[in-house]
Design brief:
With about 280 residues, the protein is α+β, with helices and mostly antiparallel strands. The chain contains seven helices and ten strands.
Amino acid sequence: MKKLTLLICVVMGSISMNGQITTPAASPAAKIMQTVGLTDVTVEYSRPSMRGRTIFGDLVPYDKLWRTGANKNSMVTFSDDVTIAGQNVKAGSYAIFTKPGLTSWEVIFYSDTNNWGTPENWDDSKVAAKTNVEVYTMPSDVESFTMSIDDLHNNGATLGMMWEKAYVGVSFEVPTVAKAIESIESVMNGPSANDYFSAASFYFEEGKDLSKAKEWIDKAVSMNDKAYWMARRQSLIYAKMGDTKGAIEAAKKSMAGAETAGNADYVKMNKDSLKEWGAL
C-alpha cells in the first residue's frame, strides 16, 4: 500500500511539474505580409492595448526612444533595397524605433533587430534611415497599437502606426521600375546560355529528344565558349548521338578549359572519356 501511495505521489508530482497554464498574451504578436510593386514587405510587432490608460505623453513619454509596440522591438523586412525619405536602405530586416512627439514623431530604422525593447547601448552606425513625420489626430481612439501598410502603388507604400488618437505614416519607395525593366529586357533578349544548358541537360538526362538537346547545348556553348562544364555536357550528348568525332573535339575543349581553371575533376572526366573514345 505504501508503494502504491508513493507511486501515485510521483505521478501526480510529474503531472504538476509538466503542466503549463495557457493564457492570452497581454500584447499579442502580429505579422503583416504585403507585396508592394515587386517587393515583399513584412512587418512583425506586438500590440499593447490602452485599457483605460493615457498613452502618449504618459505611458509612452514624449521625445523618448520607444520600442514602437511591446515586447521585442517591432521589425520590418524588405526583400529589395528601398528608399526611405531619400535614404537608401539595403534589403534586410530593421528594428523600428520611434520618438513620439505631440505634433511629430522621429522614426528610426535600426539594423540590429535583436533587442527586447530599446538597445542597451545605442549605436548610430546601425541607423539605416531616420525621418520625422507629422502626427495626424484621429476622431476616435484606436484601442490596440496597430501597424499597417497603406497607400499601395506600384512604386511604394506607407508604413503606418496608430494608437490612441495618433496616426503617423512613413512613405517608402521600392525599385519596381528597375526590376520590371530588367525582367522585360531579359525575356526580350531570349534565353541565356545557362537556360540553354539547363534545358539540354534535362533532355539528355531524361532521355528526351537528343536532337533538341544538341541544338540547345550548341547554343549554350556558342554563347559562353569558356564554360568548360558546358563543353563537357556537349561531348556527352554528341557521344550518345553517335558523333564520336564531335564528342572528342568537345571533350578536348572542355579539358583545356578545366586545366586553365584548375578543375582536376573535369580534367579527369574528360581524359577518361577521350580514352574511351580512342583519342588517347
